[in-house]
Amino acid sequence: MRDLWQNTLKHIDDCEGPSVLDGVREIYRECRLEQEDNRLTLVVPNGFVSRLVSGRHQESILKACRTLLDRDNLDFSIRVSEEKKAKKSRESGRKAGLPMKEISPKVPEPEWDNHLITRYLFENYVVGESNRFAHAAAYQVSENPGKSYNPFYIYGGVGLGKTHLVNAVGNAIFRKSPEKKILYLTTESFLNEMVNAIKFNKMSEFRERYRSIEVLIVDDIQFLSNKERTQEEFFHTFNSLFESGRQIILTSDCAPNEIMTLEERLRSRFSSGLIADIQIPDFETKVAILTEKMKQEGINLSEDVIYFLATSIKSNIRELEGAMIRLGAYQTLMGKPVTIEVTRRLLSNIIQNTSMPLHTELIVNEVSTFYKVSPKEIRSKKRNRSISLARQVAIYLLRDLTQMSFPEIGREMGGRDHSTAIYAFRTVDENRDSDAILSRDIEILRRKLLQSL
Ligand code: ADP
Ligand code: MG
After folding, report:
1. What domains can you pick out in the chain, each with its CATH number?
2. Which end of the chain is less crowded, N or C, counting CB atoms within 10 A of the terminal residue's CB?
3. pLDDT value at position 358?
4. How high is the pLDDT of residue 84?
């Protein structure tokens, strides 16, 4: 069933965007999807991949399979491959057949398939300045669906947490009132369903289905632009729900008045409730989100690496998360913690390169302020104790935090020879172990610098 698995991955790429599987594509290539009637078993190489799937992609996989196999009631489980298990235990000299940890999560069958993404909850949504208003409004809506803000319209850039937030609303409502008919769907699914209904002459069923919904969540409605027939149908659905006091929640990448070629009556409908935007998160919020995600994924990256990611990846949280997963996978496979250097290399395609002169200047200035020695003195030939120490620490940090070579560092440090730079680096590196003050000072400087890179 290799085809089904390949098609599933492709379907996820097509429907949810390639970034969903960023960083795990290689790892997932090792899996196999088996099907027996409506039972799907994903055979994975090890427990790590099993956790990765159940923690992050299970819903997406299921959703894709439902569409590909055209079946609603699929039962999904994960199994760690026997082959790999046997091989692993042979390699480690253990007796084959010892029971290993296996995870086979049961997906509960809801009576009504609401298509909500169950891992997106308020509990794991980090609130910061950038999303405080949207979060507060969303929470209100979940407490009083249909009553407080209707429609509720959230907009913001790619990967900033819109889909997460609206699913959190849906999941919260579902928990409180499981009998409520909630439906989450993307504008594309709405469009597809409608096209099919037209094709098979089932428009009245289609309308009936939508008009019985009590909470309708439609994601990415900017895709309605240019689709007149869908807009028309959406307008009728919207009106009938709205008039009977049902909650409507919409997301988009821009404000209603910025959606191109959106019919005026839809535009004014969308604007008639509450509009909240999500902004780019600040550094602290990004660190908090990464920390939360690491907890969920069982990944443990060093603080340095976290700070580095939060400063280097400017705006897209999905990208930030993808980077973290990739580093986590690397760490597990290599069996040792990733360093900033490895991070830079692995993520060179997404991390914006800051220019080298800035690094040098920044590092030398920071060290100079810290040790109360001027940058000029650091680069000079003077050799008194405090100046030498500041110079050595600057060289150490230049090597540690930039990709500069020793000859380059030597040149930057007042035209010194590369062997001087190497010697300074080694001295600090060795002394750090025995000198607690030096070690602490370097940590303070590193942290400060990583935040301003
Ligand atoms: P959007 O729909 O705006 O493109 P998503 O909701 O898909 O963005 O978010 C992208 C990823 O970032 C998701 O995995 C989501 O869980 C995560 N994310 C975004 N904002 C937050 C947040 N405030 N707290 C926790 N995770 C977040
Ligand atoms: Mg989204």
Report:
1. 2-92 (3.30.300.180), 122-278 (3.40.50.300), 283-346 (1.10.8.60), 364-451 (1.10.1750.10)
2. N
3. 57
4. 54
Here the tokens at position 315 are: 């705006």
Q: For residue range 128-159, what is the model confidence (pLDDT) as tens digits?
A: 999 999 999 999 999 999 998 999 999 999 99
- Between β-strands 274-278 and 182-186, what pairing exists: parallel, antiparallel or unpaired? unpaired
Q: In a mutational test of the pocket of ligand 1, which residue from 57, 277, 318 has the highest number of ligand atoms less than 8 Å from its CB?
A: 318
Residues in the chain, how many?
453
Q: For residue 295, report the distance from its CA to the centre of ligand 1, in Å.
A: 15
What pTM, to 2 d.p., does this model score? 0.62
Scored b (16 or more CB within 10 A) or e, 416-428 reads beeebbbebbeeb
Ligand 1 proximity of 162 Cβ (cutoff 6 Å): yes
* Residue identifier of the C-alpha nearest atom 27 of ligand 1: 161
Find where tokens 């819903």 sit.
59
